[in-house]
Amino acid sequence: MARSRITDFTGAEIRENSIIAFPTRQGNTVRNSEAVVKEILRETHRGRIIPMLRVRPTGRESGHDRRLTLTARVVSTEHVVVIGDAKEESA
């Protein structure tokens, strides 16, 4: 059986090297962060497959305080939206 494609909540396909925006927490507030998708993962929880993304933050985000680290992290695809392609941005 072939894998189905992973999409955001608008229906846009999420691929490696896509630029996404997703919510993150800082203290007691929520901000929007921008990141580049490095890998698409699939985790199994109670028999269900949950799509996850390994992303690298770009440093562009809402909020007054800067992000302390740009290390890669794993996020769920639930509230992710695709905003571009990293290959197009670098051209």
Distance between the termini: 36 Å
Average pLDDT: 86
Q: Mind telling me the CATH class?
A: Mainly Beta
How do the SSEs run, as a string of H and E?
Answer: EEEEEH
Low-pLDDT residue intervals, each spanning 5 or more residues = none
Q: How many discrete structural domains?
A: 1
CATH architecture: Roll
Largest sheet: 5 strands, antiparallel
Radius of gyration: 14 Å
- The total strand number stands at 5
Please identify the structural class as seen in this structure: mainly beta
Number of helices: 1
Indicate the percent of residues in helices.
under 10%
**Widest beta sheet: strand line-up:** 4-3-2-1-5
CATH topology: SH3 type barrels
% residues in beta strands: over 45%
| General form | globular
Structural write-up:
- The N and C termini lie far apart (36 Å).
- This protein has one helix and five strands; from the N terminus they run E-E-E-E-E-H.
- It has one helix at 86-90, and strands at residues 18-26, 29-45, 48-61, 73-76, 81-85.
- A five-stranded antiparallel β-sheet has the order 4-3-2-1-5.
- The mean pLDDT is 86.
- It has a single domain (18-90), classed as SH3 type barrels, CATH 2.30.30.
- By secondary structure, the chain is mainly beta.
Give me some keywords for this one:
globular; 91 residues; mainly beta
List the helices and strands and how they pair.
Blueprint: E1 18-26, E2 29-45, E3 48-61, E4 73-76, E5 81-85, H1 86-90
Antiparallel strand pairs: 1-2, 1-5, 2-3, 3-4
